[in-house]
Amino acid sequence: MSKSTTWDMQGSWDAKGGWATQGRCDEHGAAPRGLASAGLDRMRHVLARSVESGAVPGLVALVGRGADTHVEVMGTLRAGGGEPVRRDTLFRMASATKPVTAAAAMILVEECRLRLDDPVDPWLPELADRKVLARIDAPLEETVPAHRPITLRDLLTFTFGFGAVLAPPDAYPIQVAIRELGLDTTAPEFGPDEWIRRLGELPLMRQPGELWQYHTGSDVLGVLIARVAGQSFEAFLRERIFEPLGMKDTGFHVPEDRIHRLPVSYAHDPATGELTVWDEAAGGKYSRPPVFAAGGDGLVSTADDYHAFYRMLLNKGTLGGERVLSRASVELMTTDQLTPGQKTEKDAFGDHFGRHGGYGFGMAVRTHRRDLASPGQFGWDGGLGTSAYADPAEDLVGILLTQTAQDSPDTPGLIKDFWTTAYQATV
Length: 427
Description:
This protein is of the alpha+beta class. It folds into two domains: about 35-95 and about 230-425, Beta-lactamase; about 115-230, Methane Monooxygenase Hydroxylase, Chain G, domain 1. It has helices spanning about 35-55, 100-110, 150-155, 175-180, 190-200, 215-230, 235-245, 305-315, 325-335, 345-350, 350-355, 410-425, and strands spanning about 5, 25, 60-65, 70-75, 90, 130-135, 145, 265-270, 275-280, 300, 320, 320-325, 355-360, 365, 380, 385-390, 395-400. The strands form five sheets. Strands 1-2-4-3-17-16-15-14-13 form a nine-stranded antiparallel beta sheet, sandwiched between helices. A two-stranded antiparallel ribbon has the order 5-10. Helix 2 (about 100-110) runs parallel beside helix 6. The radius of gyration is 21 Å and the shape is globular. This is CubicO group peptidase (Beta-lactamase class C family). Pfam families: Beta-lactamase.
């Protein structure tokens, strides 16, 4: 990054009492090398439109290309006005946590403490000797033996045989059992050992290696990493990823002295579409250490911290002289790992899960040119309103952080528009 930063204050107070655009930060001045000012201007106007309309109360957007970084900061921490969003505002990263968890697992592979294709049974005996549902709608007792044990590769690629059921609630007996065991929440009231024990009570939905199924593999990885490392999952991430990369604001909760930097999190009322509070800052879910630090969706972070993580991946495992992963590991993580058969369910939900074409370790990998992004782009979104990807062909990192869930067309549409303008800013 450059040593100099200039601020161009632009915007106006809207009817809701929120500053539509607090600040525009261009490192390297008003026309940073490698980023086109026309594209950045369009980005600013597109983002401001969503804030001014009230679709999202606030946001931080970052586009980095090589040494050049452009940041937009808009809106307020709460709908209707109040304290402004700042560049260091903390956001709930949700599923954008998954690539970080995958990177942590690959650190243990590089240390030869885990192997990609070895069974995880020695570390996760709760998942040994699996039974598999005869079919997804079968009673829980109607099972067949698993053809083979679960491996680390299965967990990293979400093909270990268990995951989110993409069907209406309680459509199948396995969904009822998941809910009754308290495994359907992002904030269980029990720790990782109890979580994995309860998961082990249930049969798999598919044979190991058969099908990509969303989410659960990352949560299992968090438990596995902690057991192999002999320390808490959060402590391992902090020691091996966050501290080497200078990610000083990333963790599984927000300490009291930083809680003022966490915005209110909003979802949408399914009947009216209006914003409704999902999580407050003070006293909310992220205001205290979680009982279960979830590898699938638990992190809180900032745009600059995540920029460091993705820049490390673009740099083939290094940042600022610190090597976190080998070049070979990064290339493996960011290469499509799935067969066409394994992608069947993912691709059935095309615009959400299947639009990228491929999936690596804990993140999407673009295999075809469907929009402005280059083949080889990698990263993932978060359901609470976040998006983070890197494009090796363009040496580009883009990060959009909002506090508004992707449960209505508004936030997904904003994310698409952000990426459209991000690629217009490349020259």
